[in-house]
Amino acid sequence: MGKNKRVNDSTIKAPALEQLYSRHSSKWRRFAADVLPMHVAEMDFEIAQPISTLITRMVGESDLGYLGPVPEVAEAFESFAQERWNWKIDPSQLKLATDVGLATVEYLRANLRSGERVIVNSPVYSGFYEWLKELGVEPLDVALLHTDAGWRLDLAGIESAYQAGHLHLLLCNPHNPVGRAFDRDELTALAALSNRYGATVISDEIHAPLTFAEFVPYLSCGDAATETGVVITSSSKSWNLAGLKAAFLLTQSETMAAKVARLPPALHWRTSILGAFAMAEAYNAGVEWLDATVKTLDANRKHLAAELERLLPEVAYELPEAGYLAWLDLRGTTLTAARILEEAKVSLVPGPDMGGETYAGFARLNFGTSPEIITHGLERIAKLSR
Ligand SMILES: Cc1ncc(COP(=O)(O)O)c(C=O)c1O
Protein backbone atom coordinates (compact mmCIF):
# COMPACT_ATOMS: atom_id res chain seq x y z
CA MET A 1 0.00 0.00 0.00
CA GLY A 2 1.35 3.43 -0.99
CA LYS A 3 2.08 6.03 1.63
CA ASN A 4 -0.87 8.18 0.54
CA LYS A 5 -3.53 5.50 0.80
CA ARG A 6 -6.24 6.03 3.38
CA VAL A 7 -4.90 4.02 6.30
CA ASN A 8 -5.81 5.95 9.38
CA ASP A 9 -8.81 5.07 11.44
CA SER A 10 -8.59 7.57 14.27
CA THR A 11 -10.31 10.91 14.64
CA ILE A 12 -8.77 14.22 15.59
CA LYS A 13 -9.50 16.64 18.42
CA ALA A 14 -9.87 20.39 18.71
CA PRO A 15 -8.56 22.14 21.86
CA ALA A 16 -10.98 23.56 24.42
CA LEU A 17 -12.50 26.98 23.77
CA GLU A 18 -10.38 28.79 26.40
CA GLN A 19 -7.25 27.67 24.58
CA LEU A 20 -8.65 28.56 21.18
CA TYR A 21 -9.40 32.13 22.29
CA SER A 22 -5.67 32.66 22.89
CA ARG A 23 -4.86 31.97 19.22
CA HIS A 24 -3.58 34.90 17.16
CA SER A 25 -5.45 34.27 13.91
CA SER A 26 -8.23 36.40 12.46
CA LYS A 27 -10.83 33.86 13.52
CA TRP A 28 -10.09 34.52 17.19
CA ARG A 29 -9.33 38.24 16.97
CA ARG A 30 -11.96 39.69 14.69
CA PHE A 31 -14.69 39.79 17.32
CA ALA A 32 -14.83 40.39 21.08
CA ALA A 33 -14.27 37.38 23.31
CA ASP A 34 -17.99 36.90 23.95
CA VAL A 35 -18.48 35.92 20.30
CA LEU A 36 -18.13 32.32 19.22
CA PRO A 37 -16.42 32.52 15.81
CA MET A 38 -17.88 30.08 13.26
CA HIS A 39 -17.32 32.17 10.16
CA VAL A 40 -13.84 32.15 8.59
CA ALA A 41 -12.61 28.95 6.92
CA GLU A 42 -9.98 27.66 9.25
CA MET A 43 -10.23 24.57 11.40
CA ASP A 44 -9.61 24.43 15.13
CA PHE A 45 -7.60 21.20 15.04
CA GLU A 46 -3.96 21.02 15.99
CA ILE A 47 -1.79 20.71 12.90
CA ALA A 48 -0.15 17.45 11.76
CA GLN A 49 2.88 16.46 13.81
CA PRO A 50 5.30 16.08 10.85
CA ILE A 51 4.48 19.63 9.72
CA SER A 52 4.86 21.01 13.22
CA THR A 53 8.22 19.24 13.58
CA LEU A 54 9.47 20.58 10.26
CA ILE A 55 8.49 24.18 10.99
CA THR A 56 9.95 24.03 14.48
CA ARG A 57 13.21 22.65 13.09
CA MET A 58 13.46 25.33 10.41
CA VAL A 59 12.80 28.08 12.96
CA GLY A 60 15.29 26.52 15.39
CA GLU A 61 17.92 26.48 12.66
CA SER A 62 17.16 30.10 11.61
CA ASP A 63 16.32 28.70 8.20
CA LEU A 64 14.03 31.56 7.21
CA GLY A 65 15.52 33.10 4.09
CA TYR A 66 13.99 33.71 0.66
CA LEU A 67 12.50 30.77 -1.16
CA GLY A 68 14.84 29.22 -3.74
CA PRO A 69 14.22 26.12 -5.87
CA VAL A 70 11.81 23.80 -4.14
CA PRO A 71 11.21 20.67 -6.24
CA GLU A 72 9.89 19.01 -3.09
CA VAL A 73 6.41 20.53 -3.57
CA ALA A 74 5.92 19.18 -7.11
CA GLU A 75 7.37 15.79 -6.18
CA ALA A 76 5.16 15.48 -3.11
CA PHE A 77 2.00 16.65 -4.90
CA GLU A 78 2.73 14.33 -7.83
CA SER A 79 2.72 11.32 -5.57
CA PHE A 80 -0.25 12.57 -3.50
CA ALA A 81 -2.38 13.22 -6.61
CA GLN A 82 -1.47 9.87 -8.11
CA GLU A 83 -2.20 7.84 -5.02
CA ARG A 84 -5.25 9.70 -3.79
CA TRP A 85 -7.00 10.62 -7.03
CA ASN A 86 -5.24 8.46 -9.63
CA TRP A 87 -4.29 11.68 -11.38
CA LYS A 88 -0.96 11.94 -13.19
CA ILE A 89 0.30 15.51 -13.08
CA ASP A 90 3.21 17.08 -14.94
CA PRO A 91 5.41 18.29 -12.07
CA SER A 92 7.34 20.60 -14.40
CA GLN A 93 4.18 22.73 -14.81
CA LEU A 94 3.72 23.55 -11.13
CA LYS A 95 4.40 27.18 -10.17
CA LEU A 96 4.44 28.43 -6.60
CA ALA A 97 2.56 31.51 -5.43
CA THR A 98 1.84 33.23 -2.14
CA ASP A 99 -1.75 32.09 -1.85
CA VAL A 100 -4.70 31.04 -3.97
CA GLY A 101 -6.14 34.54 -3.98
CA LEU A 102 -2.96 36.16 -5.25
CA ALA A 103 -2.36 33.42 -7.85
CA THR A 104 -5.90 33.86 -9.19
CA VAL A 105 -5.67 37.65 -9.30
CA GLU A 106 -2.30 37.50 -11.10
CA TYR A 107 -3.54 34.85 -13.53
CA LEU A 108 -6.52 37.01 -14.46
CA ARG A 109 -4.46 40.22 -14.59
CA ALA A 110 -2.16 38.58 -17.11
CA ASN A 111 -4.80 36.89 -19.24
CA LEU A 112 -8.12 38.71 -19.13
CA ARG A 113 -9.07 40.84 -22.13
CA SER A 114 -10.26 44.36 -21.48
CA GLY A 115 -14.02 44.50 -20.86
CA GLU A 116 -14.25 40.80 -20.13
CA ARG A 117 -16.25 39.68 -17.11
CA VAL A 118 -15.38 36.59 -15.06
CA ILE A 119 -17.98 33.86 -14.62
CA VAL A 120 -18.69 32.69 -11.07
CA ASN A 121 -21.30 30.27 -9.79
CA SER A 122 -23.12 31.72 -6.80
CA PRO A 123 -23.54 31.18 -3.98
CA VAL A 124 -19.77 31.14 -3.89
CA TYR A 125 -16.79 31.99 -1.68
CA SER A 126 -16.81 35.72 -0.95
CA GLY A 127 -13.10 36.00 -1.77
CA PHE A 128 -13.93 35.51 -5.46
CA TYR A 129 -15.88 38.77 -5.44
CA GLU A 130 -13.14 40.57 -3.53
CA TRP A 131 -10.44 39.39 -5.93
CA LEU A 132 -12.44 40.57 -8.94
CA LYS A 133 -13.07 43.92 -7.26
CA GLU A 134 -9.33 44.25 -6.74
CA LEU A 135 -8.91 43.79 -10.51
CA GLY A 136 -11.74 46.15 -11.38
CA VAL A 137 -13.51 43.25 -13.11
CA GLU A 138 -17.25 42.56 -12.92
CA PRO A 139 -18.35 39.08 -11.91
CA LEU A 140 -20.82 37.40 -14.25
CA ASP A 141 -22.97 35.16 -12.14
CA VAL A 142 -24.17 31.86 -13.54
CA ALA A 143 -25.74 30.58 -10.34
CA LEU A 144 -25.52 26.93 -9.40
CA LEU A 145 -28.69 24.97 -10.01
CA HIS A 146 -30.29 23.44 -6.96
CA THR A 147 -31.82 20.24 -8.32
CA ASP A 148 -33.45 17.19 -6.74
CA ALA A 149 -30.06 15.50 -7.14
CA GLY A 150 -28.25 18.37 -5.39
CA TRP A 151 -26.18 21.30 -6.65
CA ARG A 152 -25.19 21.28 -10.32
CA LEU A 153 -23.37 23.59 -12.74
CA ASP A 154 -25.66 25.45 -15.14
CA LEU A 155 -23.85 24.46 -18.33
CA ALA A 156 -26.39 26.20 -20.56
CA GLY A 157 -25.89 29.41 -18.58
CA ILE A 158 -22.12 29.08 -18.85
CA GLU A 159 -22.44 28.56 -22.60
CA SER A 160 -24.46 31.78 -22.92
CA ALA A 161 -21.74 33.64 -21.04
CA TYR A 162 -19.08 32.17 -23.35
CA GLN A 163 -21.20 33.16 -26.36
CA ALA A 164 -21.24 36.72 -25.04
CA GLY A 165 -17.42 36.69 -25.08
CA HIS A 166 -16.76 36.17 -21.36
CA LEU A 167 -14.22 33.39 -21.56
CA HIS A 168 -12.96 32.83 -17.99
CA LEU A 169 -14.79 30.72 -15.44
CA LEU A 170 -13.66 30.81 -11.83
CA LEU A 171 -14.74 27.38 -10.67
CA CYS A 172 -14.83 26.39 -7.02
CA ASN A 173 -14.35 22.62 -6.80
CA PRO A 174 -15.21 21.38 -4.24
CA HIS A 175 -17.62 24.22 -3.90
CA ASN A 176 -17.56 26.65 -1.00
CA PRO A 177 -20.14 27.11 0.56
CA VAL A 178 -22.44 24.34 -0.71
CA GLY A 179 -19.86 21.56 -0.44
CA ARG A 180 -20.46 20.06 -3.88
CA ALA A 181 -17.61 18.01 -5.38
CA PHE A 182 -18.45 18.10 -9.09
CA ASP A 183 -18.49 14.71 -10.80
CA ARG A 184 -16.56 13.50 -13.80
CA ASP A 185 -19.50 13.77 -16.24
CA GLU A 186 -20.17 17.34 -15.24
CA LEU A 187 -16.52 18.41 -15.44
CA THR A 188 -15.96 16.56 -18.70
CA ALA A 189 -18.96 18.35 -20.20
CA LEU A 190 -17.67 21.67 -18.86
CA ALA A 191 -14.25 20.96 -20.40
CA ALA A 192 -15.75 20.12 -23.80
CA LEU A 193 -17.82 23.29 -23.72
CA SER A 194 -14.88 25.44 -22.65
CA ASN A 195 -12.68 23.92 -25.35
CA ARG A 196 -15.30 24.61 -28.00
CA TYR A 197 -15.33 28.32 -27.12
CA GLY A 198 -11.60 28.67 -26.34
CA ALA A 199 -12.53 29.50 -22.74
CA THR A 200 -10.44 28.96 -19.60
CA VAL A 201 -11.48 27.24 -16.39
CA ILE A 202 -9.58 28.43 -13.34
CA SER A 203 -10.28 25.57 -10.99
CA ASP A 204 -9.84 26.48 -7.34
CA GLU A 205 -9.34 23.07 -5.72
CA ILE A 206 -8.24 24.23 -2.30
CA HIS A 207 -10.82 22.10 -0.44
CA ALA A 208 -10.18 18.95 -2.52
CA PRO A 209 -8.30 16.74 -0.03
CA LEU A 210 -11.26 17.08 2.37
CA THR A 211 -13.76 15.37 0.04
CA PHE A 212 -15.79 12.61 1.71
CA ALA A 213 -16.43 10.54 -1.41
CA GLU A 214 -14.69 10.88 -4.78
CA PHE A 215 -12.94 14.08 -5.76
CA VAL A 216 -12.37 14.65 -9.48
CA PRO A 217 -9.56 17.08 -10.39
CA TYR A 218 -10.55 19.21 -13.39
CA LEU A 219 -7.28 18.45 -15.16
CA SER A 220 -7.93 14.70 -14.91
CA CYS A 221 -10.93 15.05 -17.27
CA GLY A 222 -9.13 14.50 -20.57
CA ASP A 223 -7.54 16.63 -23.29
CA ALA A 224 -10.30 19.24 -23.39
CA ALA A 225 -9.68 19.87 -19.68
CA THR A 226 -5.91 20.09 -19.98
CA GLU A 227 -6.28 22.46 -22.96
CA THR A 228 -8.57 24.77 -20.98
CA GLY A 229 -7.71 24.41 -17.31
CA VAL A 230 -5.44 25.80 -14.67
CA VAL A 231 -5.74 24.43 -11.16
CA ILE A 232 -4.95 26.79 -8.30
CA THR A 233 -4.64 25.18 -4.92
CA SER A 234 -2.74 24.87 -1.68
CA SER A 235 -2.39 22.66 1.35
CA SER A 236 -3.57 25.60 3.43
CA LYS A 237 -7.25 24.63 3.90
CA SER A 238 -6.87 20.89 4.29
CA TRP A 239 -3.92 20.99 6.68
CA ASN A 240 -4.91 24.25 8.35
CA LEU A 241 -1.83 26.26 7.35
CA ALA A 242 -3.43 29.42 5.91
CA GLY A 243 -1.09 31.77 7.78
CA LEU A 244 1.97 30.15 6.22
CA LYS A 245 1.27 31.61 2.76
CA ALA A 246 2.06 29.12 0.04
CA ALA A 247 -0.01 27.87 -2.90
CA PHE A 248 0.53 26.83 -6.50
CA LEU A 249 -0.80 26.98 -10.05
CA LEU A 250 -0.73 23.79 -12.08
CA THR A 251 -1.32 23.23 -15.79
CA GLN A 252 -1.03 20.20 -18.00
CA SER A 253 -0.72 21.48 -21.57
CA GLU A 254 1.52 23.80 -23.54
CA THR A 255 -1.45 26.08 -24.22
CA MET A 256 -2.16 26.65 -20.54
CA ALA A 257 1.51 26.66 -19.45
CA ALA A 258 2.06 29.55 -21.88
CA LYS A 259 -0.72 31.50 -20.15
CA VAL A 260 0.78 30.89 -16.71
CA ALA A 261 4.19 31.91 -18.08
CA ARG A 262 2.77 35.45 -18.43
CA LEU A 263 2.59 35.78 -14.64
CA PRO A 264 5.34 37.71 -12.84
CA PRO A 265 8.27 35.51 -11.72
CA ALA A 266 8.11 37.36 -8.40
CA LEU A 267 5.18 35.12 -7.45
CA HIS A 268 7.71 32.48 -6.46
CA TRP A 269 9.79 34.89 -4.38
CA ARG A 270 6.70 36.14 -2.60
CA THR A 271 5.93 32.64 -1.31
CA SER A 272 6.95 31.89 2.26
CA ILE A 273 9.79 29.43 2.76
CA LEU A 274 7.99 27.92 5.76
CA GLY A 275 4.78 27.67 3.75
CA ALA A 276 6.38 25.98 0.74
CA PHE A 277 8.21 23.33 2.77
CA ALA A 278 5.20 22.78 5.03
CA MET A 279 3.12 22.22 1.89
CA ALA A 280 5.56 19.58 0.61
CA GLU A 281 5.49 17.93 4.03
CA ALA A 282 1.67 17.97 4.06
CA TYR A 283 1.41 16.07 0.77
CA ASN A 284 4.24 13.77 1.76
CA ALA A 285 3.79 12.99 5.42
CA GLY A 286 0.45 14.56 6.32
CA VAL A 287 -1.82 11.89 4.92
CA GLU A 288 -2.48 10.05 8.13
CA TRP A 289 -3.53 13.31 9.76
CA LEU A 290 -5.63 14.18 6.73
CA ASP A 291 -7.48 10.87 6.88
CA ALA A 292 -8.21 11.37 10.55
CA THR A 293 -9.40 14.90 9.82
CA VAL A 294 -11.71 13.78 7.01
CA LYS A 295 -13.13 11.15 9.33
CA THR A 296 -13.66 13.72 12.06
CA LEU A 297 -15.33 16.16 9.65
CA ASP A 298 -17.55 13.40 8.33
CA ALA A 299 -18.75 12.78 11.89
CA ASN A 300 -19.09 16.55 12.46
CA ARG A 301 -21.24 17.17 9.37
CA LYS A 302 -23.61 14.46 10.63
CA HIS A 303 -23.46 15.75 14.21
CA LEU A 304 -24.44 19.17 12.89
CA ALA A 305 -27.41 17.67 11.03
CA ALA A 306 -28.59 15.84 14.15
CA GLU A 307 -28.14 18.88 16.37
CA LEU A 308 -29.96 21.16 13.92
CA GLU A 309 -32.81 18.69 13.87
CA ARG A 310 -32.89 18.71 17.68
CA LEU A 311 -32.33 22.43 18.33
CA LEU A 312 -33.27 24.34 15.17
CA PRO A 313 -35.51 22.08 13.09
CA GLU A 314 -36.69 24.98 10.90
CA VAL A 315 -33.16 25.45 9.54
CA ALA A 316 -32.52 23.47 6.37
CA TYR A 317 -29.11 21.97 5.68
CA GLU A 318 -27.85 19.38 3.21
CA LEU A 319 -24.77 17.34 4.03
CA PRO A 320 -21.81 18.76 2.08
CA GLU A 321 -19.75 16.34 -0.02
CA ALA A 322 -16.51 18.00 1.06
CA GLY A 323 -14.97 20.37 3.52
CA TYR A 324 -16.08 21.83 6.81
CA LEU A 325 -18.55 24.48 5.75
CA ALA A 326 -22.31 24.22 6.09
CA TRP A 327 -24.70 26.28 4.00
CA LEU A 328 -27.65 26.95 6.27
CA ASP A 329 -31.03 27.86 4.84
CA LEU A 330 -32.62 30.15 7.44
CA ARG A 331 -35.63 31.10 5.34
CA GLY A 332 -38.02 29.10 7.50
CA THR A 333 -37.12 31.39 10.43
CA THR A 334 -36.73 35.09 11.21
CA LEU A 335 -33.01 34.52 11.82
CA THR A 336 -30.25 36.22 9.84
CA ALA A 337 -26.49 36.10 10.28
CA ALA A 338 -26.62 39.71 11.55
CA ARG A 339 -29.19 38.87 14.24
CA ILE A 340 -27.30 35.73 15.20
CA LEU A 341 -24.13 37.77 15.68
CA GLU A 342 -25.87 40.55 17.55
CA GLU A 343 -28.11 38.49 19.82
CA ALA A 344 -26.60 35.00 20.05
CA LYS A 345 -22.97 36.14 19.75
CA VAL A 346 -22.15 33.56 17.11
CA SER A 347 -20.43 34.77 13.95
CA LEU A 348 -21.47 33.14 10.67
CA VAL A 349 -20.73 34.31 7.13
CA PRO A 350 -23.84 36.19 5.92
CA GLY A 351 -25.38 34.68 2.78
CA PRO A 352 -25.21 37.94 0.76
CA ASP A 353 -21.38 37.87 1.01
CA MET A 354 -21.60 34.83 -1.25
CA GLY A 355 -23.48 36.35 -4.15
CA GLY A 356 -25.77 39.20 -3.12
CA GLU A 357 -29.20 39.74 -1.64
CA THR A 358 -30.63 36.59 -3.23
CA TYR A 359 -28.87 34.81 -0.38
CA ALA A 360 -30.17 37.03 2.45
CA GLY A 361 -31.91 34.02 3.98
CA PHE A 362 -28.73 31.94 4.19
CA ALA A 363 -25.57 31.80 6.27
CA ARG A 364 -22.38 29.71 6.30
CA LEU A 365 -21.23 27.91 9.42
CA ASN A 366 -17.82 26.35 9.98
CA PHE A 367 -17.94 22.92 11.62
CA GLY A 368 -14.17 22.26 11.58
CA THR A 369 -14.10 22.11 15.34
CA SER A 370 -15.21 19.83 18.18
CA PRO A 371 -18.77 18.45 18.37
CA GLU A 372 -19.09 20.24 21.72
CA ILE A 373 -18.36 23.63 20.16
CA ILE A 374 -20.82 22.93 17.32
CA THR A 375 -23.52 22.12 19.86
CA HIS A 376 -22.59 25.15 21.97
CA GLY A 377 -22.98 27.45 18.94
CA LEU A 378 -26.35 25.98 18.01
CA GLU A 379 -27.58 26.19 21.60
CA ARG A 380 -26.80 29.90 21.63
CA ILE A 381 -28.71 30.39 18.37
CA ALA A 382 -31.63 28.21 19.50
CA LYS A 383 -32.30 30.60 22.41
CA LEU A 384 -33.37 33.33 19.95
CA SER A 385 -37.00 33.78 19.03
CA ARG A 386 -37.62 32.61 15.51
C1 LIG B 1 -12.54 28.25 -2.23
C2 LIG B 1 -11.47 29.05 -1.55
N1 LIG B 1 -10.45 29.53 -2.26
C3 LIG B 1 -9.46 30.24 -1.70
C4 LIG B 1 -9.49 30.53 -0.36
C5 LIG B 1 -8.40 31.37 0.22
O1 LIG B 1 -7.18 30.83 -0.11
P1 LIG B 1 -5.84 31.64 0.13
O2 LIG B 1 -5.80 31.99 1.57
O3 LIG B 1 -4.79 30.68 -0.29
O4 LIG B 1 -5.92 32.83 -0.77
C6 LIG B 1 -10.53 30.06 0.43
C7 LIG B 1 -10.58 30.38 1.85
O5 LIG B 1 -11.54 30.16 2.53
C8 LIG B 1 -11.54 29.29 -0.17
O6 LIG B 1 -12.55 28.78 0.52
Give a topology summary.
Elements: H1 17-20, H2 26-29, E1 36-37, H3 49-60, H4 71-85, E2 94-97, H5 100-111, E3 118-120, H6 126-135, E4 139-141, E5 145-147, E6 150-152, H7 155-163, E7 168-172, H8 184-197, E8 200-204, H9 223-228, E9 229-233, E10 247-250, H10 254-260, H11 266-269, H12 273-285, H13 287-311, E11 325-329, H14 337-344, E12 346-347, E13 349-350, E14 362-366, H15 371-382
Parallel strand pairs: 1-12, 3-4, 3-7, 7-8, 8-9
Antiparallel strand pairs: 2-10, 5-6, 9-10, 11-14, 13-14
The structure holds pyridoxal-5'-phosphate.
Residues 41, 99-101, 125, 127, 172, 176, 204, 206, 234, 236, 242, 247 line the site of pyridoxal-5'-phosphate (PLP).
Keyword list:
386 residues, alpha/beta, Aspartate Aminotransferase, domain 1, Aspartate Aminotransferase, domain 2, 2 domains, seven-stranded mixed sheet, three-stranded antiparallel sheet, 13% strand, binds pyridoxal-5'-phosphate
Q: Report helical residue fraction.
A: 40-55%
Category from helices, strands and their pairing: alpha/beta
- Inertia-based shape: globular
The second-level CATH architecture of the largest domain is 3-Layer(aba) Sandwich
CATH fold-level name of the largest domain: Aspartate Aminotransferase, domain 2
Q: Class of the largest domain, according to the CATH hierarchy?
A: Alpha Beta
Summarize the model shown:
The protein is built from 15 helices and 14 strands. Helix content is 40%, strand content 13%. The strands form 4 sheets. A 7-stranded mixed β-sheet has the order 2-10-9-8-7-3-4, with helices on both faces.
